[in-house]
Amino acid sequence: MRFSTRVLIALLCAAVLTHGVLFALMYGSARRNLFEEMRSQVTNIAATGALTIDVAGHEKIRGRAGADSPDYAALLTTLRAIRDANRRDDMRVKYVYTARPNPANPSGFEFVGDAEESAEDRSLPGDPFPDLPEALRLDEARADEAFAEDQWGTWLSASAPIRDASGRAVAVLGVDVAADRVRDTLNALLWRGTLALGVSFVLACGIAWWIYRWVNQSLEKVERAMDRVKRGDYATMAEFRRGDEFERVAQALNAASRALREREVLRENLARVVGDKVAGRLAQPGGGAEKPGEGGAPVFLFAGFGDATSQLARECEGDAALLIEDLCAAVIDGVVEFGGEVAAFHPDGLLAVFSRGENGTEAAPKRALHAAYRVRQRAEKLFWKWVAEGRISDRPWLGVSVDAPDPAAGGGSAITDRIAAINARTRDLSIGVLASAAIARAVTPEIELRPVDDTPDCQVFGGAAGAR
C-alpha cells in the first residue's frame, strides 16, 4: 500500500473518529439537557398545581362514597384545569391525579382524585396506587430520573406534596407527561445531528482527498526521480520549491544523482583512457604483431555481463548494486586466478590482458582460455544461486571471448564496442566461450576447440563451459 494511500485512510479514520465522538458528546449532552429541562418543567407543574388544591376538601374525600361529594367534584375541576392549562406542543400533560398514604398499607398510596374523563380509565377514591419504578414521596417535589412504562404507555412522572395549614404533607399531586413528544424531539435531534455529521464528514473527506493529492503529487515526483536514477538517468533533477521536507529530500536526491553521474562519467573516461592505452601499446611495433603464444604476445579476454547487470537492476532494485559487485568480483577472480590483468571496465563488461608467462607458467592463450571457462563457471554458479533464492526470475546470459589483439583495430572505441557486442555474439551462437582461429591454433593440441562459425573473415571456435 502506498504511503499516500495510508495517509488518506488515516485521515478518513481520524475524520470518522473525531466526528463520531463529537457527535456522540453533543447528542448526549443535548439529550441530557432536554430531559433535565423536561423534568424541571413537570416538577414545576406538579408543585404549582399542588398549591391550588383545597386541602380541607381533599381530606374529606374518603373511599368510594367520597366520589359523590361536592368536594370530589371541585377537586376534579381543579385537576382538569391544571391538566388543560399545561397541554402545549412542547409539554403535553396527559394525567393529573392526587393520592394519599393508604391506611391499610402504610408503605403504599391510594388514589383520591383523577382528572381523566373516561370512566373506564379514571381511578376512584380509595383505589390502590400502582407500583412505580420510583415510589411517591411526601417530603419534596420531584420527577422521575427516567421514563417509566406501564399498561397505558411511556411516561415521565412528577409529584409534589400537598400540605395542610400547618405545613404537614397529607397527600401528593401527580403529573404524567407522555414521552412520545419528548421522543419525537430527541429523534428529530438525532436525525439533524446525523445529517450534520454526514455533511461534515463529506467535507472532511474532501479535505482529506485534497491533502492526499497534495502529498501524493510530491511523493510521485520523488518516486519518478528515484526511478530515473535507478535506470541510470542521472541528468534529470527533481524540482521542488516548497521549503519543507520534500524539498530537502529532493535536494539530497539531486546531490546523490550528481555524484552518481560524476562517478559514471569518471568510470567511462577511465575505461576509455585505459582502453586507449592498451590499444596504443599493442599497436606499437612488436607490441601485438607476433603470433599468439610466440614472442610474448598478449591475449585479450572479453567478458560481457551487460545482460546480467540490466536484469539485476530491473528485478532486484535495492540489492542490485551488491549483486553486481558480487558478479564483478567473480569475473575478476576468474581472470586473476590464471594471471590475467583487468585492463578496462565498461558498463557492459571488462577487458583482461594475459601476457607472456614467467617461471614456466602456461602460455598466454592457454591461461586466457582457462580463465574464460573459470569466469563462466563462477558466473553460472552465482546465477543459479540467485534463481534458487528467488532474487531473479531466470538465469541471465554471460559471454566470454578470447582473441589476439589486432593492431589495425584502432583505439579504445574498438575495445569497448567488442565488450558491448560480446553477449549478443555468444548468445546467437549458443556458445558461452568463443576463441578466434589464432587462439585455437595456439592451444592445439592441448585444448580441443570445435569450430562454430566458418565465416571466412572471422572464424571462431568454442567449447563446453566446463572444459579445461
Query: Remind me, CATH topology of the largest domain?
Result: Beta-Lactamase
Number of self-contained structural domains:
2
Which stretches are low in confidence, meaning pLDDT under 50 for 5 or more residues running? 283-295, 407-412, 464-468
Query: What order do the helices and strands follow?
Result: HHHEEEEEEHHEHHEEHEHEHEE
C-alpha termini separation: 52 Å
Strand order of the largest sheet: 8-9-7-10-11-13-12
Shape: rod-shaped
Q: Radius of gyration over alpha carbons?
A: 51 Å
The largest sheet is: 7 strands, mixed
The CATH superfamily name of the largest domain is: PAS domain
Alpha-beta content class:
alpha+beta
Task: Name the CATH architecture of the largest domain.
Answer: 2-Layer Sandwich
- Beta-strand share of residues: 15-25%
State mean pLDDT (0 to 100 scale).
Answer: 79
Number of helices: 10
> Which percent range fits the helix content?
40-55%
CATH class of the largest domain reads Alpha Beta
How many strand segments?
A: 13
